[in-house]
């Protein structure tokens, strides 16, 4: 059977992942899960705590009352060759672990490699260099190329 000519072509999960990362969108099971609240995921702009009762409202109010989330999803832009993959550790230049990569991919439109990671809030607001740690055989690790931390919105703003 011969396929008809079309303006659309099938694409796989890799293409979807690349597009969503460049657009600054989260994916369930990576940046969003039952263990990540809307504040940590950066989705609180759509949260309306004053719109009435809903499941989880009290828990979210407790997070807010306790000073906000402990973690935040941030964007990472690689400044050297390399891709930060899911589960890679992120370390500061002194070697201390500061977070974990949740998603990573080449970003053809941005002409760089980008990723998202979960990082403590106190460390996620500033733009700075850090390293991803690449898992190696038998559990040994080495430092990967440096990355610059940015929020996902700033990664998305680069393409708008």
Q: Can you characterise this structure?
A:
With 160 residues, the protein is an alpha+beta fold. The protein has a single domain, classed as Gyrase A, domain 2. It has 5 helices and 6 strands, in the order αααββββαββα. It has a 6-stranded antiparallel barrel with strand order 1-4-3-2-5-6.
CATH architecture name = 2-Layer Sandwich
The unreliable regions are: none
The CATH class, by name, is Alpha Beta
How helical, in percent, are the residues? 10-25%
Quote the beta fraction: 25-35%
Total individual domains:
1
Topology:
Layout (H helix, E strand, L loop, with lengths): L12 H11 L14 H4 L15 H9 L5 E8 L10 E4 L4 E11 L4 E9 H4 L4 E7 L5 E10 L1 H6 L3
Antiparallel strand pairs: 1-4, 1-6, 2-3, 2-5, 3-4, 5-6
Features:
160 residues, 31% strand, 6-stranded antiparallel beta barrel, Gyrase A, domain 2, flat, alpha+beta
């Amino acid at each position: 059977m011969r396929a008809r000519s079309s303006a659309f072509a099938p694409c796989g999960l890799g293409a979807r992942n690349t597009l969503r990362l460049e657009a600054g969108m989260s994916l369930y099971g990576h940046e969003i899960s039952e263990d990540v609240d809307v504040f940590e995921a950066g989705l609180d702009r759509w949260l309306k705590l004053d719109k009435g009762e809903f499941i989880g409202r009290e828990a979210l109010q407790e997070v807010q009352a306790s000073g906000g989330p402990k973690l935040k999803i941030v964007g990472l832009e690689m400044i050297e060759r390399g891709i930060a993959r899911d589960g890679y550790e992120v370390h500061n230049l002194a070697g201390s672990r500061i977070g974990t990569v949740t998603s990573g991919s080449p970003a053809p439109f941005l002409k760089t490699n980008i990723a998202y990671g979960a990082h403590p809030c106190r460390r996620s607001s500033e733009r700075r260099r850090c390293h991803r740690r690449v898992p190696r055989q038998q559990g040994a690790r080495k430092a990967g190329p440096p990355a610059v931390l940015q929020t996902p919105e700033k990664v998305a703003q680069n393409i708008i």
